[in-house]
Amino acid sequence: MTSFNLRALKLRSGERFQDEVEVQLVPLEFGGQRYLPVPEQVPAELCATRASTGTVFELSFDARLHGPCQRCLRDTAIDRGIAVREYHAASRDADEELRSPYVSEDNLDLSAWARDALVLDLPAQILHDPDCAGLCPVCGKDLNDEPHEHEEEHSDPRWAALEQLREQL
After folding, report:
1. Which residues constitute the domain of residue 112?
2. 3-state SS string for 22-70
């Protein structure tokens, strides 16, 4: 896990710190699937600006995740450019909403912040292609490679009584 020691920052109000850091990304569970960051260590730009009431942190990096397409299970890579900002109030008495969850005991947890920012930037479904047809629900074949249809299923005999009611209406 990557963290940044905030004690090294000796900023006065209005001053800005900027540096490139290596951030370790962790594998993600998303939509019931596991996605691996490649590479696990990515260069990121960290900025900290001291305000009169706290500190504004900015983090930007590029990430690539590898894992399955959520429709057809093909190996898929998704690239994301992340740029996020976080505010942390200087006063310990400040509202919890004004204190960053990534700051603890003068350390900024860059890995947790990067993971959360990456997850929030992901699409609702990770697909290898926006027009992915998925898998056949009957036979399980990939509909992208073999588009096909099956004969209409015969109804389950347990539903026969309801089918008769529908015909009467």
Report:
1. 3-132
2. EEECCCEEECCEEEEECCCEEEEEEEEEECCCEEEEEEEEEEEEEEECC
Residue 111 lies in a domain: yes
d(CA 123, CA 32): 14
Determine, yes or no, domain membership for 164: no
Q: Is residue 106 part of a domain?
A: yes
pLDDT in tens, the chain (169 residues): 888 888 888 888 888 999 999 999 999 998 889 999 999 999 999 999 998 899 999 999 999 999 999 999 999 999 999 999 999 998 877 788 888 999 988 899 999 999 999 999 999 999 999 999 999 988 889 999 989 888 876 677 888 888 888 888 7
Distance CA 116, CA 110 (A): 10
How many domains is the chain built from? 1
12 found inside a domain: yes
